[in-house]
Design brief:
Layout: H1 6-22, H2 30-68, H3 75-80, H4 85-110, H5 116-127, H6 136-151
């Protein structure tokens, strides 16, 4: 007898739940899944934006350390330094993105996916939390699962 892979088991269980839910009158609507997918997409874009902002923030802080003796300045002196304005603006943008991401993550935990596309979107959002350098195997496996789910019909 052929052995069923864990991935096949997960996909089969997901498909069975979706099929069972499709016949139920109380099943979530396509609009619910569309909202879930949109929220997942927003989470992914915020994560990538936050990463970009943090890179820019680091470069700006490095420039200030090198050119304005940044770490020797008091907090008050740092606040009034014209060249530091971008750093503080970036800091505010990073905080805003982090806050919105936390809110979305809470919502995503409570929202059930009702299709393979919804499950794939939630996995994409989760993958954003994995550093590929820290756990390359898990990252590659999860990424391949999403690719397979997106390529499957339905």
């Amino acid at each position: 007898m052929a052995r069923i892979s864990r991935r096949g088991l997960v996909l089969g269980a997901s498909a069975a739940q979706i099929a069972a839910g499709a016949s139920s009158e109380a099943s979530p609507s396509k609009d619910d899944d569309d909202a879930l997918i949109a929220l997942c997409d927003r989470f992914v874009s915020l994560t990538r934006l936050q990463t970009e902002l943090m890179i820019r923030w680091g470069k700006q802080e490095h420039w200030l350390a090198k050119n304005a003796n940044w770490f020797a300045l008091s907090k008050q002196e740092q606040r009034v330094l014209r060249e530091a304005r971008e750093l503080f603006e970036l800091d505010a943008q990073i905080e805003s993105a982090m806050s919105e991401r936390k809110q979305i993550a809470r919502k995503l935990q409570a929202m059930p996916a009702t299709s393979i596309a919804g499950v794939a979107a939630k996995l994409k959002a989760a993958i954003e939390e994995i550093d590929p350098d820290d756990n390359p195997s898990a990252f590659r496996i999860l990424t391949s699962i999403v690719e397979e789910m997106e390529a499957s019909p339905g």
